[in-house]
Each structure stands twice: as C-alpha cells, then as structure tokens.
Write a structure and sequence with these properties.
alpha+beta; single chain
Length: 138
C-alpha cells in the first residue's frame, strides 16, 4: 500500500545518509531492499515485549504496536541485512542492520522507553539515602 513511500526509501538507501528507521520505517526499509513482511495472527500491542539485542545478548523491555513483521531470511540470504533484534516471546524479527550501510532499523518503539531505566533515578535516591552517590538527583 505504501508504493510511493517505498520508492522514496529506495532512493535514501542508495545514498550514504545514516538512517535509523522505527516501526513502519523498519518494514518500509525491508520492502524497499527486496525483503518481505507478513501479517501476524494477533500482532504485538502495548508494553512489556522483551526484545533481545543479538550483538550483546541483552534483553530490553519494549513498547510495540504492529500487526506485520519483517521476514528477515531473504534479506539475510542476499547479504543485504542481518537480524539485530529478535522478539523473545515468539522469535519474530525486531530489527535489522544493513550490510555496508549506516542503516539500522527496529520494529519496537525505543523512544517510548518503557523499560527498567525509566525509574533508574529511584536507585540513585536510595543510594543517597544510604549516604552514597553525592550526585544523585533529589
């Protein structure tokens, strides 16, 4: 349905412009580079979706709202992109890193920041209560 936008994304892909694509942008970049998406039975909605960073092994809690997922296999076979994140619950693709490009994409919403760092300042407050961390926020 986003034919015109996909054509514009193809043009951006051919440049050296660094790109960080989020959610629909993740899907559009995959489609623009010869990948595919498929409809999920229920989709991923709301917060508390664990996603694993394949480069570090760390798991992050994410916010999501999508009903389609990128089929990463074709992009990986063609050496266009490799999976960067995977959904811990169902194993679906959650992000890609594009080979030879300054492009990476994620399906989840990192800007929503529902993960454990949201209330990290509470630990600083606790450390201050114990007499440590003089620079803690009050």
């Amino acid at each position: 349905e986003c034919v015109e936008i996909i054509e514009e994304v193809k043009k951006l892909y051919e440049t050296d412009i660094p790109i960080f694509a989020i959610c629909l942008g993740h899907q559009l970049m995959a489609l623009a580079t010869g990948g595919d998406t498929y409809k999920m039975k229920y989709g991923h909605r709301g917060g508390n979706h664990p996603v694993k960073d394949l480069s570090t092994g760390r798991v992050y809690i994410s916010s999501q709202n999508h009903g389609y997922v990128v089929d990463a296999e074709e992009l990986e076979k063609k050496h266009i992109a490799r999976p960067a994140f995977v959904n811990v619950n169902d194993g679906t693709n959650e992000g890609m890193v594009y080979e030879g490009k300054n492009i990476f994409t994620v399906q989840f919403h990192p800007e929503a920041c529902p993960g454990p760092q949201d209330s990290g300042y509470l630990f600083d407050r606790f450390m201050e209560m114990m007499g440590g961390n003089d620079n803690a926020e009050k």
